[in-house]
Design brief:
178 residues; alpha+beta; four-stranded antiparallel β-sheet; 10 strands; 31% strand
Amino acid sequence: MLRAMSHTGPHASDAFARLFVGLWPGDTVRDAVQAHADRWAWTPSARRVPRTKLHMTLHFLGGVPRERLPELVHGLAVRFQPFVMRLEHAEVWRSQVAVLCPRAVPPGLTELHQRLQVALGQLQQPTEREALLPHVTLARQAKGSQPAVGAAIRWDVDGYALIESTPDSRYHVLYAYR
């Protein structure tokens, strides 16, 4: 169900929602990812992602007029088969972003990404990037940080979500698809 949004004041940004479609982990996966990140050797400049914001973005939509939300919620309902993903490869990208990724992309994730891309095309909703780059961001400005080594984190993916990134840097799941 679409959650009521609380926005106050007549600001121009109230007319738009900054949205993305992604995988929103449950507490067990979130705790395991946080524990993994806690074992890294972080540089002083590293900006860790808070536990409550850990997720995997599938499609970033950017600023979308709020009046489109009902259409998007309906149009993003695609056929979905649950799948298992293993987060097991940690690294720092050249962009100084520290990530945890699957070594092998599960076919279910590829299928979900493609179905959502088709749905977004039918909705005439552009995205910032079409290619699937599955990862959970652990930190930014992490150049020089040393990844932790550990067992793979099993993520039983049973749904995806339409998520809003608010001006105060919070994430709100607007609609969860199961």
